Amino acid sequence: MSRLCLVLLLVTTTTTATAAEVTLSPGQSISAALSRMGSGDTLTLRGGTYNENNLHPPSGSTVQGALGEAVVIRPVGNAAPGFELGSASNVTIRNLKVDGSGGGISYGIRTNGGGSLIENVTIVDVQNQGIALYCPGDNHTGCGGGGNRVVGVHVSGSGSAGCHGTTAQSGYCHGIYIYSNDNVIQDSEFDHNNGYGIQTYGAHTVLKNDSVHNNGDGRGVTIPGYRAFDDNTVVNWDGANGSAVAGEFHAGVTANVSVSSPPPMPPAEPSTAFAGPELLQQALNVVAPQVEVVGET
I need a surface site. Which of 15, 44, 133, 141 has the fewest CB within 10 A? Predict the structure, then answer.
């Protein structure tokens, strides 16, 4: 009987997986901790500043700041994404700040994966996009992937100290740049970015209760990628029909936008065949702002 119990005990010990919970303080390596983590594991960062970038959380993991503590990712020199998720999926990043003022952040958070949650994160003064939700492969409209949620974030100052980092040009550093599908951007604020507050080419993008204001040259939202609405517009859009009314696109006033099936991409060069503002004015029965063709960065 004792021999049987021993065998059963050994089987239970080797087949039961337990999610790990790791806590770090400033001066300890986030990268080293992430390299030992797997799906279901949680890394909690205590308050303070961490001089790291190019952080790669594995699929299914969580990286979070300790509740009630100010956690700042602020590397210096050799710019790279703050968090580079790559193809990782179902990652959660929350309760922290990514600060590019030290010159060490290109993208704040970049992902080609899906199903991730970015929550209660502040991203400031990065050199490229604040947040990039990219395709699983090459970026193009209707590429699939996505299903990410961005909730309660504040992105400001993208490209404010020079719009570069990974080949971005001036005017192309957006608060959030979307190509993948089925993403939700909710209860978030995008302001004082070099490009647009929100630029999306992604199908079935949902923007809910977001504030977009004071971005470069009055750039507010493009849906999907080239239907441009400035800061003084509140937009309701379902991908084919919509309306825009005069209003303030500032904190406390919201844009509710749902982008379903995206229209064709605009021509690469200006063409008289592209109706642009006239088509938008006819569809919305309002005065259309300047429509800009914005390329991939």
Answer: 15
